[in-house]
């Protein structure tokens, strides 16, 4: 008889809670959602609803909640579901509690800003004795937790590890595809957020759906160039964590990145105090800098980075994008 996997999901925000819930509901793995606020975890255990992160969605009875870090040491699979810029700190905080053979899976969509390195690289350096994987792809936390059909990719250095993760985490409504392209899978998630901001700007300015489609197609082209230059595979970009997530995030108002772009395009003040995480606002500048160093053209990402840092006005950005030299596709 197979022993059920023990899985710890660290980070009790929208995505961590959704992942923990969708894995727990299958009953094949023992899942604990680990948050850093003991009072919240106790409340979740009794109410079975995370009103702040996933309002109105019932969390399964089988899901355990804890703020006690010792539960991490019982897990063979540990998901890091906190934002990108908190992942390095998380490795420091939770590394000492990991069991010897635990696989760590980053579920964030971004690039480490302070080091300008991939999340899997910084995690590997911080946790050298652990296999580091990445889970990314199209899927809003509310859809996943609500039991709507969703599919994502999980990539590890070794195919057997990626397959083990895909089997342990997938269920009837949430399906994972195994990959060994960690670079492609994580950059797909990081870059689609930047492109979703660009699509939001276009929507906020009322430039039309044709402009959005052009941005998606040209954005995908620059994403492919960048992923290949960083050592990933162009074919990953045409999969779930590339085209799939780009189409979702660039078109759905559920996306925080798209909504952020819409506010920029309308010239509305941006209120970060509402606690809305906009990963693309962090990734734009670092991707743009990395691309420049690699000699890769990323005009849309560059423009988003400059609009966010205030060095480029939106009308000028659009004029620049439209007046680039005529080239082949
Ligand atoms: N929401 C979604 O639909 C999806 C999100 N993602 C990705 O998942 C990541 C997280 O996003 P999301 O869940 O939406 O964000 P939220 O803002 O909803 O939640 C982030 C959570 O991370 C917690 N956190 C931050 N730092 C730490 C830490 N050091 N240790 C433990 N917990 C920590 C926060 O805790 P506290 O409240 O205590 O600050 C908060 O609960 C992002 O990279 C996002 O791109 C991926 C797919 C879908
Ligand atoms: O990554 C997501 C869906 O796949 C969530 O997108 P936002 O972070 O823009 O809300």
Task: Describe the model.
There is one protein chain. The protein is built from 14 helices and 10 strands. With 329 residues, the protein is of the alpha/beta class. It folds into 2 domains: 176 residues, NAD(P)-binding Rossmann-like Domain (Rossmann fold, 3-Layer(aba) Sandwich), CATH 3.40.50; 135 residues, N-(1-d-carboxylethyl)-l-norvaline Dehydrogenase, domain 2 (Orthogonal Bundle), CATH 1.10.1040.10. The protein has an 8-stranded mixed β-sheet, sandwiched between helices. A two-stranded antiparallel sheet has the order 6-7. Strand 2, helix 2 and strand 3 form a beta-alpha-beta unit. Helix 7 packs parallel to helix 11 and helix 12 crosses helix 13. The site of NADPH dihydro-nicotinamide-adenine-dinucleotide phosphate has 27 residues, from helix 1 and helix 3.
Summarize the topology.
Blueprint: E1 5-10, H1 14-24, E2 29-34, H2 38-47, E3 64-66, E4 77-80, H3 87-94, E5 103-106, E6 111-112, E7 117-118, H4 119-126, E8 132-136, H5 141-145, E9 150-156, H6 159-169, E10 174-179, H7 182-204, H8 209-229, H9 234-237, H10 240-251, H11 256-266, H12 279-294, H13 299-309, H14 314-322
Parallel strand pairs: 1-2, 1-4, 2-3, 4-5, 5-8, 9-10
Antiparallel strand pairs: 6-7, 8-9
The protein binds NADPH dihydro-nicotinamide-adenine-dinucleotide phosphate and 1,3-dihydroxyacetonephosphate.
The CATH C-level class name of the largest domain: Alpha Beta
Query: Do you know the CATH topology of the largest domain?
Result: Rossmann fold
C-alpha geometry: globular
* CATH architecture classification name of the largest domain: 3-Layer(aba) Sandwich
Radius of gyration: 19 Å
Beta-strand percent range:
5-15%
Q: Which segments are poorly predicted (pLDDT under 50) over 5 or more consecutive residues?
A: none
Largest sheet data: 8 strands, mixed
* Distinct helical segment count: 14
Q: Helicity range of the residues?
A: 40-55%
The CATH superfamily of the largest domain is NAD(P)-binding Rossmann-like Domain
Helix/strand class? alpha/beta
Q: How are helices and strands ordered from N to C?
A: EHEHEEHEEEHEHEHEHHHHHHHH
